[in-house]
From TrEMBL:
It catalyses: N-(5-phospho-beta-D-ribosyl)anthranilate = 1-(2-carboxyphenylamino)-1-deoxy-D-ribulose 5-phosphate. InterPro entries: Aldolase_TIM, PRAI_dom, RibuloseP-bd_barrel, TrpF_fam. It holds the Pfam family PRAI. The gene is trpF. This is N-(5'-phosphoribosyl)anthranilate isomerase. Residues 5-194 form the N-(5'phosphoribosyl) anthranilate isomerase (PRAI) domain. It comes from Clostridium homopropionicum DSM 5847. The keyword Amino-acid biosynthesis applies. Pathway: Amino-acid biosynthesis; L-tryptophan biosynthesis; L-tryptophan from chorismate: step 3/5. Belongs to the TrpF family. The keyword Isomerase applies.
Length: 198
């Protein structure tokens, strides 16, 4: 099965124009406090400019389910990605498909996947999401056999081939790895996508 690509942390229509040129499958919009945070109005305009076959993912941290549902409807998000301490009960109140993020430091962290059986995807990330730091991929071996797995954390065009070999994720998720000076870099996006699609 071909590994799909998610480019996260898009902040402008210019970013959308870049990803529209390449074999990108998902893009992420950060609604949580972050240097990549976007307003719902900016996100809506970006999603309207997005190629129709690319899915829009909203990134949230400890946002009330009712608020997530409102933003999902307004922006027309396809998927909701949760990075906080959301409970199973919170997840059940969210209307869109969910990707639940788990920060991986040990096998015990990987075991938390069991708590989110209703999630459509499990996103495995480093301890500081968005920092560009990897975790030990051997901790995630075999996960993608049982769960739809999105691998994040420190991925670049230089290490993504190895990451795919080790973890066999359904999706690889990159943000800082395709940036220069915190701005999305078209050359890096092109290089990353071509490595994944090889």
């Amino acid at each position: 099965m071909k590994t799909k690509v998610k480019i996260c942390g898009l902040r402008s229509v210019r970013d959308i124009e870049i990803v529209n040129k390449y074999s990108v499958d998902y893009v992420g919009f950060v609604f949580a406090e972050s240097k990549r945070k976007v307003s719902i109005h900016v996100a809506k305009a970006m999603i309207e400019a997005l190629r129709k076959d690319i899915k829009a993912v909203g990134v949230f941290v400890n946002t009330l389910p009712e608020e997530i549902n409102k933003i999902t409807d307004y922006c027309k998000l396809d998927i909701v990605q949760l990075h906080g301490n959301e409970t199973l009960e919170d997840c059940e109140k969210i209307k869109a498909p969910i990707w639940k993020s788990i920060s991986v430091k040990s096998k015990a962290d990987v075991a938390k996947i069991e708590l989110y059986k209703n999630a459509q995807g499990i996103l495995l990330d480093g301890l500081k999401p968005g920092s560009g730091e990897c975790f030990k991929w051997d901790l995630a071996k075999g996960i993608s056999d049982k769960y739809f797995t999105i691998l994040a954390g420190g991925l670049t065009h230089g290490n993504v081939s190895k990451a795919i070999q080790e973890v066999k994720p359904q999706v690889v998720d990159v943000s800082s790895g395709v940036e220069t000076d915190s701005i999305k870099d078209e050359e890096k996006i092109r290089g990353f996508v071509s490595k994944v699609k090889e």
